[in-house]
């Protein structure tokens, strides 16, 4: 029943999203005439080589209108982003409900049948579709945006992806990509599943052994302070694997769509680090390993 209800709500949200996209285009088309007037006014000023009181007043009015038009379009886009976030949340809730009920659709088969290549593609898609934090003027990026850690009392929700420190088969400990199954407030422990279908293991872990992954990408152009900086020590997901390893930031992202360039610790190289490798913001977290005894 819950799945049917979610499907109905998703259909409603998609319709609302479609209307907002149409409104965005209408708003953009409506404001285009004003932008053309601004350009033509500047061209006439250059031709006459003077800034008369008339042009000054005219430009002030045109720019005031352009600012109001941009704010109106921005508000519509924010509403559209909210709809997208709600749709993604409902899809995730539906996936978790289906997983619990033992139901799977064709686009997401059970783990036991998921091929390695399919898993890597899904992880890549998750990184690409991670939303970019877009705050209003004066807003600071929230916890779990880029390099900003979760608040001290934060509890990851079922279905959230995390970096989890577990014991490997050989007894060594390693950080793996995992999915939260549940959290017990009584014991302050998580139950997490290894995201890698080859592991097929569930782990019970204390909070200090679980690091929530970012829920938003940080915009390097607007919020550079929300990114890890050059030579900062982090845990990063090694490409084409589901394990996190210690690494140094080589080059932080320069644009919103850019990945980090990192140097993984690797004793097989003379300087102790691998050549630069790209890792998405989604899979780079603060290094939180306990001190070695």
Automatic annotation (TrEMBL):
The gene is LOC101133975. This is SAGA-associated factor 29. InterPro entries: SGF29, SGF29_tudor-like_dom, Tudor_SGF29_rpt1, Tudor_SGF29_rpt2. The keyword Coiled coil applies. The lineage of its organism: Eukaryota, Metazoa, Chordata, Craniata, Vertebrata. Residues 3-41 form a coiled coil. It comes from the Eukaryota. GO terms for cellular component: ATAC complex; nucleus; SAGA complex. Its main location: nucleus. The keyword Transcription applies. Interacts with dimethylated and trimethylated 'Lys-4' of histone H3 (H3K4me2 and H3K4me3), with a preference for the trimethylated form (H3K4me3). Component of some SAGA-type complexes. Component of the ADA2A-containing complex (ATAC), composed of KAT14, KAT2A, TADA2L, TADA3L, ZZ3, MBIP, WDR5, YEATS2, CCDC101 and DR1. Interacts with (methylated) CGAS. Interacts with TADA3L, GCN5L2, SUPT3H and MYC. Keywords: Coiled coil, Nucleus, Transcription, Transcription regulation. GO terms for biological process: regulation of cell division. Residues 152-293 form the SGF29 C-terminal domain. Pfam families: SGF29_Tudor. It is found in: Nucleus.
């Amino acid at each position: 029943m819950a799945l049917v209800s979610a499907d109905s709500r998703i259909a409603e949200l998609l319709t609302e999203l479609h209307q907002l996209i149409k409104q965005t285009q209408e708003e953009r088309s409506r404001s285009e005439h004003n932008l053309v007037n601004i350009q033509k006014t500047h061209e006439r000023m250059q031709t006459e080589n003077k800034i008369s009181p008339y042009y000054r007043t005219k430009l002030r009015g045109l720019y005031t209108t352009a600012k109001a038009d941009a704010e109106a379009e921005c508000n519509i886009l924010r509403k559209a982003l909210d709809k997208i976030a709600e749709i993604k949340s409902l899809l995730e809730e539906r996936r978790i409900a289906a997983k619990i009920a033992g139901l799977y659709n064709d686009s997401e088969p059970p783990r036991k049948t998921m091929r390695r290549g399919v898993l890597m593609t899904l992880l890549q898609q998750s990184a690409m579709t991670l939303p970019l934090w877009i705050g209003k003027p004066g807003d600071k990026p929230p916890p779990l945006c880029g390099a900003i850690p979760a608040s001290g009392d934060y509890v990851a929700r079922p279905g959230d992806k995390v970096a989890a420190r577990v014991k490997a088969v050989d007894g060594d400990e390693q950080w793996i990509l995992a999915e939260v199954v549940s959290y017990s407030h009584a014991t302050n422990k998580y139950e997490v599943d290894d995201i890698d279908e080859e592991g097929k293991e569930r782990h019970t872990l204390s909070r200090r052994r679980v690091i929530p992954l970012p829920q938003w990408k940080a915009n390097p152009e607007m919020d550079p302070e929300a990114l890890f900086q050059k030579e900062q020590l982090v845990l990063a997901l090694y490409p084409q694997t589901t394990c996190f390893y210690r690494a140094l930031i080589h080059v932080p992202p320069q644009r919103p769509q850019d990945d980090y360039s990192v140097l993984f610790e690797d004793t097989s190289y003379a300087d102790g680090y691998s050549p630069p490798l790209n890792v998405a913001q989604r899979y780079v977290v603060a290094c939180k390993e306990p001190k070695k005894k």
